[in-house]
Amino acid sequence: MDGTIHTLQEFMMRTKGIVYILAIGFLVGFTAFWHFLWDREPRQKDLEKDS
Fold first, then answer.
1. What whole-number distance in Å separates Cα of residue 40 and Cα of residue 46?
2. pTM of the predicted model over 0.70
3. How far apart are CA 9 and CA 30, in angstroms?
4. What would you report as the CA-atom Rg of the chain, rounded to the nearest whole angstrom?
5. What is the C-alpha to C-alpha distance for residues 30 and 35, in angstroms, rounded to an integer?
6. Could you give the CA distance from residue 44 to residue 12 in angstroms, rounded to a whole number?
């Protein structure tokens, strides 16, 4: 396999695979960023518990 795309089907399958990888990467990155934001500041419920 030389890596060239000869048909529309090959192009669509390669593009679809790249989009799936990007989407999974976005979901993992967004989840990590969400946890970073929530773990950074104490929550109101936790503040009430300490008082």
1. 13
2. no
3. 31
4. 21
5. 9
6. 48
Contacts of 48 (CB under 8 A, 6+ apart): none
pLDDT of 17 reads: 96
What tokens appear for 8 in the block?
């529309």
Phi, psi of 4 (to 5 degrees): -90, 155
Contact between 45 and 39 (Cβ < 8 Å): no
pLDDT one-digit tens code per residue, 1-51:
578 999 999 999 999 999 999 999 999 999 999 998 888 766 666 666 655
Predicted local confidence at residue 7, as pLDDT: 96
